[in-house]
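Predict the holo structure. Ligand: 2-(butylsulfanyl)adenosine.
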Amino acid sequence: MTFRIQKNSRERVAELRRLLNDFNYQYYVLDAPTVPDAEYDHLFRELQGLEEKHPELRAPDSPTQRVGGQPAREFAPVRHRVPMQSLNNCFSEEELHEFDRRVREGLRRERITYVAEPKLDGLAVALIYEDGVLTRGATRGDGETGEDITENLRTLRAIPLRLREDCPPKWIDVRGEVYMSRAGFEALNRAQEKAGGKPFVNPRNAAAGGLRQLDPTVTAQRPLSFCAYAIAGSEGWRSPVAHTGILEQLRRWGFPVSAYAEAVEGIVGCLAYYRKTAERRVTLPFEIDGIVYKLNDLSGREELGSVARAPRWAIAHKFPAEEALTVLEAVEFQVGRTGILTPVARLNPVFVGGANVSSATLHNMDEIERKDVRIGDTIVVRRAGDVIPEVVRVVVERRPKTARQVVLPEKCPVCGGTVVREEGEVAARCTAGLTCRAQLRGALLHFASRRAMDIEGLGDKLVRQLLDLKRVNSPADLFKLELKTLAELERMGEKSAANVIAAIEKSKTTTLARFIYALGIPNIGETTSAQLALHFGELDVLIAATESDAKTVEDPELKDKDRFPKLRKVQDVGPEVAASLCRFFTEPRNREVLQELQRCGVHWPKAESRKKDGPLAGKSFVLTGTLPGMTREEVARLIESQGGIISSSVSSKTDYVLAGTDAGSKLAKAEKLGVVVIDLMGLKKMMGVE
Ligand code: IVH
């Protein structure tokens, strides 16, 4: 008796699984549902009941087993056996012609058959089937290594857990796109709002968020769809010879493939398809951002191969970025890490390119002037995919009388420091680099770096904490830090705190060259810092020179070559470097920090002036590459101590290029100009030390 029930159950379980799989197939692949949802649910519950009663009948590829397992703590990395490539883009007919020409020339064929498919705006995934069973699903990642999201992908009813095939391939890697339909997206957002949650901006973000859930039960509740478009690799299977054959095979195996894929002849066919699809784009049940054309003939694909992670045999023809009209309400200035001020348009929010846009970049003041953008203007904004929205142009006819010019602020909006925009320069910058909160993190890291003040242990994490807790507001504050303050920070014990304090203490004894370099003045590298230290000998003398030279900037009588007379006497200092020095040293906030640093005990030995004699007297050297066992500064000081001169670029006036390992363009230039190239041994020989 028991046996009979079991046999019936076994048969019924098999029958239910077959029915449910067929319904899924009809719904997702054939797009022709044959039963109402209620009937599906009814049979599904019957199957669940039977599997519960007869655990021995359970199977991982049963339709009931889509959601299972424990939430993951993280996604494991998966190396793709066949890399997941990306596609080259084109935005115009000309570019498409170029692509087609390259394909025809590459294959020496006149006529090419392409397959055109809509480019779905979702996420690429790789699905591995072993002996017909889904064993792994992964994201693209960087193309070489993705993340294992098998448990999440199993919850998508459009993805078959088993191929509909009696003799499946031993191994196969199916590629396709996970996306969310417009209807699914709207339903999800309605539910989200009802539950008091924040709505998703667009289907792509909602799909990405759904796949990135660590708990597959959450993914299961997101209306995610799937569309297969390629087989990237296989074992134990004979591939069709054309892409159309692949799509048919995928469909037979139970994968949804695009109902819109079409074989087209040549570029004429491509363009006709593009126009047709662009027209019906808004009526499609899902969002697309372009068309993909792929060579249909698979052997031709092999012949063409790939370049830089993208195949030569396919291209994405993108739709133009969406544009919309809105009003420019204000312009704010953001200060970047390097002190550059970027104007940002504050807009009356508008929905464009799949997202609400309330701000857009205006790049720089030149751009504002060129486009003649004024506050109050009606403007055209553009947004494509995930790129930053931009202001395309002004609708001048709609300019109100009250429209106002955009003015560059004189003071930095973050710190109140002086803002300068040099004649002929595009960028405007805040010059208070040492105290401006926007720039402070970078400034401190540079200040502490090995070739600057060389404070060991003062790394990114520590600097971030010190800034967040407002313990440090300028480099000078580093020298006021107490052991107690440091020891209380995250991941800092007494011992490491004491080490950092000791390193800070030790850094107080430095050289003028290092100190100048540590200030992080734009355009002032190690070599220039060393030149300045050597030339001026003392910080005060350098500052005095910048003060008197700064005056020459304002004098309209002067020719360019007569500006910055004192600074330009220094080897290698041109007008840009001189201007940068003047800007930095005339900013009162920076000067305060310099004084404060010296008050805190930062000091350097009094300068020795350059030796006029010595074995290297009057000879000029350029250093390049890594020099074994010595820092550049040490080598430079060695050369200078013997009367030599260091300069930063190679010219016909250079006497010697001292090349270490990995020397680059300077070495090449020396060889071109016939400048003598020596190594460290050669230098030592010249000095008579070895
Ligand atoms: S074929 C070798 N076909 O576009 C390249 N990709 O920019 C294989 N995409 O990562 C991709 N729809 O996420 C292909 N019908 C389609 C596509 C498609 C969307 C995505 C895919 C890929 C990206 C490349």
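The pocket of 2-(butylsulfanyl)adenosine is lined by residues 85-87, 117, 119-120, 124, 140, 177, 229-230, 292, 311, 314, 316 (CB under 6 Å). The mean pLDDT is 90.
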